[in-house]
Amino acid sequence: MALAHNGILRGLNSIYLQAPHIPRKDPEVVQDFLTYCQCWCESMHHHHDAEEQEFFPSIERISGVQGLMGRNVEQHQAFTPGFDLFQAYSRTCSPEDYDGQKIRSLIEGFAEPLTRHLHEEIDTLRVLDVYDSGRIRQAYQRFEKMLMDTDNVRSTWTYDETRSHH
């Protein structure tokens, strides 16, 4: 899980760092960057949806502690409003209207609660060693399989559709 969270953070960092350097005079480059932002958003949604649908309920069943993962779900909800604004911008912005500082501002609106969540969730998972580690490992493997089996299922646009959208 730490590896996945590291990938999420590095992806967001790459967007934040590159946003002001995207050449507005080149609509194709702008659209490619917006598509990159959309892909990052889909990956984030995919990861957190799968946690809430598969992994967290499994952990609570194995531990016998209802609500054990509730803090993590609350943290998902804390960064979601800002994240949703960023995702909406990346989907609806035309290359002509692109604003790298707007991208940065939107990220700043959810980065702190997201980063806190990604770090604290690892701490939550570390204390699960008091439960059946074999069953926890199996739950994580089912979670990973779900992620792999459903990769890109959420996406509502193909790359070509996204490019022709604007």
UniProtKB/TrEMBL annotation:
Sequence ranges assigned to domain Hemerythrin-like in this UniProt record: 4-123
InterPro entries: Dimeric_xanthone_biosynth, Hemerythrin-like
Name of this protein: Hemerythrin-like domain-containing protein
Organism name: Rhizodiscina lignyota
